[in-house]
Every structure is written in C-alpha cells, then in structure tokens.
Amino acid sequence: MSDDRSRRQSAVIEEFVDALDVEDLILRYDVDFDAPMRQTTAIGLLRLAGAHTPDPSSGLPGLASRVGAHWCEIVQADVSYEPLTALRLIEASRPEAERLLEELSAPGRRPAGHDAFTAYAVARWYDGVGRVRYRLGSYTAARIAFETAVGVAEDHDVWWAWPDLISNHARAAFEERGQAARQGDVAGGRDFVTPMRRTRDSIVALASAKGVALEAAPTPSAPVRHREFLRGWSNALHNMATALRQDGLVEQSLRQSRASKAVSEGLGDVYRTAQSLLNEALCAPGDPTPLFETLRDLGTTEDGRTGAGWPRGRRIALQQLAARRGGARGLSDLARLLDELEQDASGAERRSGLDVDFYAYTLGLYSQTAARLPAESRPGDVVDRWLRMAQSVREAIALPVYKRTYSRHVRPVFLRAIGRLVTGCDHRQRSLERLLSLVEESSGRELLDMLASSAPPLFGPPAGMLPGAAAPASDGERGRRSALGPMDEAESAEAKGLLQEREEQYEQHFLRHPLSSATHDEDIAHQLVQYTLNNPGSCVVRYFRFGGPFDPRLDGEAPPEPDSLGIMVCKDGLLTLCGPVPYPEVAALAERVLADIHTRYVPQPDTCHQVWELLIAPFWPHAERGEALTHLTLVPTDDLFAIPLHVATAPGGIDPLAARVPLSHSVSVATFVSRGRHLLKKQLMEDDDDLAALMSTDEAATGGEIAVAGWPGDHVHVAGRIPPALEGLVAGAHPADWEGLAELVATEPEFFVYAGHGTYVEREGGFGDPLLYLGTTDRLTQYDLALRVSLPRNKLTVLGACLAGQGMRSDGGDVLGFMRSLIISGAGAIGVPLWSVADGAMVATVSTLLRESRQALDSSGTGVFDVVQTLHEHYRRAVRTYTRLESRIDQMPLALYL
User: Fold this and answer.
1) Lowest mean per-residue pLDDT among 424-433, 487-496, 538-547, 735-744
2) Is residue 760 within 8 Å of 806, Cβ to Cβ?
3) Using the 8-state DSSP alphabet, how is residue 320 labeled?
4) Interval 549-571: pLDDT, tens
5) DSSP 723
6) 10 Å Cβ neighbour count for 755?
7) SS3 for 515-540, per residue?
8) SS3 of residue 280 by DSSP
C-alpha cells in the first residue's frame, strides 16, 4: 500500500471514530448486536473508539461509557461460555460501576440526558453480573445483582430494559429457593410458574402504560426502546415456557415457546429463537427431529457456511440428532462432537469445566450408544474419553462451580478409572506408580490450587455474629472441653443463615479471583519413593477410594468395581498395594465413631480395636518390614478424616498407634512431598519465637497449656482471659474478639494456640461446620480462618477445642474444615482433636510440645525441634500410668497433621 493511500485510510478511520456515538452504540447493543449474534462487531467499534480506556477528563459520562462497554463484553463472554473472561471484565469495571450506583442513589437524583444513559449502563452492568453469577451456579449472588439492576431501572425509569431484568431476577430467585429447598431450609421452593405469571402480567401492564404493542410482530423500523422491551418480553415468555415444561404442562409450554419465538424471529434474535426451538423440541409430542435440524441449521447461510448462531444450541442439536440416529453412524457423529469439544477446550478460558454438564451428558449418550452395539463393534475409548473430560475440568478453577461439578461429574470418573487400574494391576512398581499418580490427580486438588495461587487478602470482621450458648452444656462431663449448650431452633436457623453468608463470602472471593490450577505432577509417586529412600524408617500410607455403584452413563453394560477403599504403602522406596476394604464398612465405622463421641465423649475401646482391624492391620506387616519404623504418615480420604486413626489399637492390646510409633497425618501425598510439608517434622527453633494464644476459656477449658509452657512472657501474646500465672507478664493482652484476633495475627506468631470450646453445626448431606468460640460474642468458622487469619512464619498451630478436627471430608475427596483453612493461612504442623477432649489431657499434651520446643534451644539461641517425635514420646509416657485402654485413649487428644 502506498504512503498516500495509507494516510487516506488512516484519515478515514479517524473520521469514523470521531463520528462514532459510543452511547448510542451501547444503547442499541442489546437489540442490534447481541440479538443477531453480532457482538464482536460492536465490541470492535467500542475498542476502536477507546471506550474501555480510562479518561479522567471525561467525568461521569466517561465512566458510564466505560461501564457500558464492559457490559457489552460481559454479555459476549457469557453467551460464548467464557465465564472466566467475564469475571475479569467484571472486576476491571467494578469500581466505576459501584461509584456510578452511588451517584445514582443520591437523594433526589433524577437522571436526564447523560444521567439517563448512566442509569441504563449501571442497570445493564449489574444484569450482566447476575447472568455470570447465575451461569456459575451462585444463585444468591445472581439474585442480588439482578435485584440491584431492577432497582436502578425502576428508580430511574429505564422502563425499556425492565422486562429483561425482572425476568432474569425471577429466574434467579426461583433457583435460589430451589437450592434452599434441596437443603431442607425452605418448603415448596420449586414453584416457578406462579412468580413467572406475576412477572408476565406486570410486563403486560407496563407495555400498556408505555404504548408498546405486544401482539404485533416487531419490525426493524420499530423504536429501539420498544424493540428492547419486546426482547425482554420474549425472555419472560421463554422462562414461562420453561417453568410450565418443568411442571409437566407441555401443551401450555409449547404455546408460550411459540409466542416467544414469534417475537424473537421478528427481532432477528438468533439466541432466543434457538432457546425457543430447543424448548419446543423437548416438548414435542411426536418426533422432534425436524426441530433439532432447524436448531442445528439456524444461522447457516444458503451456501452451507456456518454464520451467526448459538454455538451451544447447535451442539445440543447435533448431540440429540446423533443419539436418536444411534448405531455405528450415531456413535461416529457423537465421537466427532466429542473431538470438537476436546479441541475447543484448549486454553484456560474454555477448559474451566464451566460447561461440564453438556460435556458429561454427551459422553453419557456416547457410552449408552456404544453399549447397544455388538460387542465386537464397541469402541475401546469410553473410559479414556471420560477421563479426558475429568482432567479438562482441572485447567482453570472458579471455586463454586468446581465444587458443584466435581463431585457430580468428575470424581465418579476418576473412581472408576482408579478401579480399572486396581483390577488390572500387576503389582510392578511402574504400575503402582501410575495408580498412585492417578489417585493424587483425583483428590485434594482444591487445596493445592489454593496453595498455588496468591493468598487471599485479610478481610475485616464479618457483618453478623453467630448465635449460640456461652456456657457449657448442663449434661457435659466436668473437666472436659465439650460442646457448649445446644442452640434452640431459632438460633440454629440463624446460625445456618450466617454460616451460609460467610461461606458465600469465601466462595465469592474465589469466584472474583479464580484460582490458578495447580499442575498435576506425574512424578509424584516417584518423589514419594525417593522420600522414603532418603528417610530410612519412614513409611507413608495413602488411603484412596475407588469403584462405585453402577452408572449406565459411565459404565455402559460393564459394572464397575464395588465401592472400595484402597491402601497403598510406601516404605524403603517400595510401593505395595494392599487388599481392598469394602467402603460401606468404612462409612459404618465413621458413624460408630461419631456415635461414641455423642454418647460417651471419647471413642470407645471396641471402636478403636475395629479401627485397627479395618484400617491399620491390612498394611501393618508392610510397615514393619525392613528398617525400624521411625515415622509413619497416614493420608486419609473421605470418611477417614473423621476417624481417629492415631488411637487405633490392636485387638488384645492396650497401646494406641501413636504411642507405638511416631505418627503424623497429611491431607495428600502431593501436599506432604511436593509442597514440602514433610519438612515440618523438624524445625529450627529460635529464642525470639512468639507464642500467640486465643483464649475462650472457663472452668471446663482452662487454657492451662500456655501457663505451664515455660515460654518467656515478653514473647507471649494473649487474646482473652490471661492465666493467673502469666498476669502482668505477657507482651500483649487483648480481648477475645475480632480486634484481639487481628492483633495476634499481626505478630506473625511461630506458635499459635486456641484454647476453648468448639461445636458442630449440621449442614446439608450429612456434612457440617465446626465452630470455635470467639469469646462470648461470636464464633470462628473455617471460612474466617481462610479469609481473616494469616500465619506466614508459623511452626505449630493447635486448636485445643472439642471437635475442631471434624468437618474435614467432602464428596469431592477434598479436605475441608479448619485443616484446609489453616494450611491455606500458612500454618505449620497442626494439632486438632476429634472428640470432646479432657482439659487435663489437652493441657498436658500442648504444654509438653511448647515446653520441649523451648528446651531444644542451645547456647546459640537456636535448636532443632522434632514435633512428631516429641508428641510420640509424650503419648508413650502419658499412657504408661494407665492400665485401661479407655483411659489411655483419653490421654491422646491430638491428631497431628504435617
């Protein structure tokens, strides 16, 4: 191109950009660009005009244009199923959107001119946020965002956008109620038809007031505001059709879908036309093939090229047509679609698992179609395809979605793949390494993701205080750190609501700041082998789950291995796979442990014998072979997190496991070896190490462990009641509240001790949340520890409260509870009790650990402290004075995790 021609072209572009009306483009984006799936054109123009670039001189109108431009891109990312991109766009524009909302909320503010555009941009931005939150399954956050959008539209007369906003709000509120109903908190939460009828009727009334003709077919020449109103009306009709179909009212649903489609076709709205076609196909009384073919071809040009359309709708059509075709051809078409999904899933934006429902459903159809073929014609890649899908979810993590999809779609795939390896294992080292690598790839990943990402910021105190008793239960055993008095029904309901708020704050942080997925280390098994070779006498036992109930989606016609617990032992560099344990027996044992704790406070001798027979005896001969056992590390899974393995006792014996051998636990092999937590066994002590103690104490939980620890007072910091022996001697004295906790955290203590009471609030699905009492006014949750506590230089943390170690298991195989939160916060070795511990035993155990760490110092003011060996030797001494096993168990209150 010649210089003159290049200059002329530049001048034309500059003239075009100067003439571009950014506000008008944003106001027309919904109907003229989003509806016909031409979002890229509009966004290209906005970027060319610099609408996204901050310009301090442009004032509030410039902010509104920037917020509006980001809304356009948020919508495109949502339609394209790229929610991680949408999340970044939301965070980039959040400060401006919130500032504009504050401006609009000023008393007496009534927008005109630029302010009317500002109100539109803000309402649409919050609507975009709600769409993304809804897509991610965070329905409460979605409902709140939609509520804000509706409020702005109502307060500032953005009437033409209101139908779309109120329809989205109704849908999110319905899903939120349904979520609560599934948790047993709300009765009758699944009625979607009634609220959608109310929404529809309110839109009809508004149309009459604004002169919008709902019955006439819309045309491109209609006013922009009327067309946007009608697009919202189409959305409301589609939601109504969905509600009716879910209620089994198929004929009514079809009528609503056809009405919605007529409006959408008049507007040239490809996206909503496709949605209506899909609902019609799902409701079709006869053969839906023609409807799926129409959906497939929507947006295809006359010469067969794929034009503007809804890609996901096209894929749904291809999926359904292939499944109905069946046979070898149908299987081939499904395979082609799966190949396309795998190729399309390249990169963090797509391989986020956020559309895993469609991927998994397609794989289920592939499995079922394959199973119906003759045996000799079936493909051999069904399990491998499932595994590739499961692995793709791990590429980029938005925490709430990951939790929602992992246990439902992903973990069952891993359990079957592990079961297949167990069944075909030839017990050669290479085969065992491959098996252990897959086990590690499938569990404990969420914690590794958090450790691989930057630590979250320290939040301030939560808005609401958790209720509960402030005195020991009347039936509690004297001198025991047991749960405080039970909550009444109202308190329990309030506690669940506030717990939900704190959990949502935790999840929303990781939704706004998605985690960097920690890369799975294929050599993890080899690293474990090397660890045991270089640490003679060390032995690591990895428990893992595999198999499961028959699922035709995953298994076709071949039943999987039964639900089982596997045990892998590594000692002296040699991996050994022990015989499987039926998992129902493990679950029953966990229930028995909890029953003991509820009725007798402590696991009973018969239970501890059963723990040994079921979980220790299968690997014990392998642990005792070769070098004398100097350090045994157990890595639990699922229900084993709630079972006190450290007090397992051989039948006929009275020596619990942790009194027989130096014992620690870890949450995964990867955490123990790759993340270096095995290095916490021995640590360098220094004479200026600080001890911080959070004391929520009374006569049942005295906190005496810090009083007799032998720690110099000028390095002791206490929040709460100071033991009499230390009054006037500690470096810092603070109240046992959020401010006091913040003061303790600010010292970056090498040793952190909580002394007080804990309790446990039952939640959905048999899970629960452990709580620690923060003085008498509030409770610490696992989410508070993750977001409000940082322990970057910590060497040892002890939670000296009953049940603090409970709540660690999850359906996805990840570790939860205080253990996960403390590891995220940077805690070193962690001691937690699993039952209502005796105060005297806790004082004796923790004070020994603290005292021995000081006695390790030499004349240089430094020394080496072995926490595993010290705890073992203390337990050996403590149990010698007792001849009855139940008394010995009670003297071993802590399970130690590295």
Assistant:
1) 487-496
2) yes
3) H
4) 766 666 555 667 889 999 999 99
5) P
6) 29
7) EECCCCCCCHHHHHHHHHHHCCCEEE
8) helix
CA-based nearest residue to 158, from 123, 126, 210: 123
The number of residues making up the chain comes to 898
Phi-psi category of 326—alpha, beta or left, where left has phi over 0 and alpha has psi -120 to 50?
A: left
Helix (H) / strand (E) containing 772: strand 768-774
Q: How many CB atoms lie within 10 A of CB 346?
A: 11
> pLDDT value at position 54?
81
Q: Give the pairing of strands 751-755 and 574-582.
A: unpaired
d(CA 262, CA 736): 64
The first and second tokens of residue 717, run together, are: 């910091």
| DSSP one-letter string for 118-165 | HHHHHHHHHHHHHHHHHHTT-HHHHHHHHHHHHHHHHHTT-TTTHHHH
Helix axes 139-155, 114-135, angle to 10 degrees: 160
Per residue in 377-404, is it b (16+ CB within 10 Å) or e — as a string?
ebbeebbebbbbbbbbbbbbbbbbbbbb
The per-residue pLDDT for range 201-242, each reduced to its tens digit, is 899 999 899 888 888 778 777 888 999 899 999 999 998 888
Return the structure tokens found at 15: 């003239």
* pTM beyond 0.90, yes or no: no
Amino acid sitting at position 78: D
Contacts for 475 with CB less than 8 Å, ≥ 6 apart: none
* Out of 176-180, 636-640, 874-878, least confident range: 176-180
End-to-end CA distance of the chain: 67
